[in-house]
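#lab-general

N.A. 3:47 PM
ok so I finally got the sequence cleaned up, no stray characters, all 121 residues accounted for. can someone with queue access submit it? mine expired

B.Y. 3:52 PM
send it over

N.A. 3:53 PM
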Amino acid sequence: QVQLQESGPGLVMPSQTLSLTCTVSGGSITTGGYIWSWIRQPPGQGLEWIGHITLSGNTYFSPSLKSRSSISRDTSKNQFTLQLSSVTPEDTAVYYCARRVSIGGDYIDNWGKGTLVTVSS
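B.Y. 4:20 PM
back already:
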């Protein structure tokens, strides 16, 4: 059974870079048919897709976050990492990593538990 676990600091200063890592167990991030995503939910708001990385290592981002976002992966550790630069308090949210099925369907079949990141001085 695939499990995803987010890790990273819970508090980030404004203008700094937020960095979160998703560690995947029970399955490989290089398995075909899946896309590895980052999604967030600000307090009192809905889910917002941030971006994802594909099997081939290509990355795609929400237009509103593209200029500040990057996603990388370490296949030897079975991890993928989100970096969001120049954060403001509006970036405060619960951040989730997730596995999205990309062949035979288009849906998320596994979520991490989420981690709260607060942007504050």
